[in-house]
Amino acid sequence: MPLGISTPGSTQLLQAEKLDQTTFSQFGTVIANPSPELIPSEQLTKLPQNAVQANQGSALKYLDVTHMKDLYPTAPSTKSSKAVMNMFVCAPRQLTTNATSKSGLGTFPVKILERHPYTTQTFIPLGLSPREVEEARYLVIVAPSLPPSQVDEGFPVPLPNDQHPDLPGRGLPDLTRIRAFIADGSQAVTYGAGTWHAPMVVIGRKPISFVVVQFANGVGIEDCQEVEWDNEGKGKIEVVVPALDWIEAGGEKKRMGLSKL
Question: Structure pTM?
Answer without folding.
Answer: 0.89
